[in-house]
């Protein structure tokens, strides 16, 4: 089974969210379907079910590897580099 090679290098505690919603969606006037939190810098972006996929775009622009869901009651994490749940 493939494992994430980036989770051990994440900051502890995890970063504070930089916003309560996807700021890029606010600027473009689109609606985020669900939100994701970058575990390197605290950027909040919309998921791949959203029209603009800002969380994935954030990863592509920064190389930050791991995000977690920013939805109430959920706690899963995803590594964009290794393509696995963490």
Rg value: 12 Å
Beta-sheet strand percentage?
15-25%
The overall strand count is 5
Strand order of the largest sheet: 2-1-3-4-5
Describe this structure in words.
A hairpin with a 7-residue loop joins strand 3 (66-69) and strand 4. The protein has two helices and five strands. The protein has 86 residues and is an alpha+beta fold. It starts with 22 loop residues before the first helix and ends with a strand. A five-stranded antiparallel beta sheet has the order 2-1-3-4-5. It is globular and about 40 Å long. The model has no long low-confidence stretch (mean pLDDT 95).
Which key phrases capture this entry?
alpha+beta; five-stranded antiparallel sheet
What's the short version?
With 86 residues, the chain is α+β, with helices and mostly antiparallel strands.
Any chance you could write out the topology, listing elements then pairs?
Elements: H1 23-28, E1 35-38, E2 44-46, H2 54-62, E3 66-69, E4 77-79, E5 84-85
Antiparallel strand pairs: 1-2, 1-3, 3-4, 4-5
């Amino acid at each position: 089974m493939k494992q994430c090679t980036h989770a051990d290098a994440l900051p502890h505690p995890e970063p504070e969210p930089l916003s309560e919603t996807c700021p890029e969606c606010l600027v473009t006037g689109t609606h985020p379907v669900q939100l994701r939190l970058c575990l390197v810098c605290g950027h909040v972006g919309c998921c791949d079910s959203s029209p603009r996929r800002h969380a994935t775009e954030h990863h592509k622009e920064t190389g930050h590897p791991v995000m977690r869901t920013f939805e109430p009651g959920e706690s899963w994490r995803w590594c964009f580099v290794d393509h696995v749940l963490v």
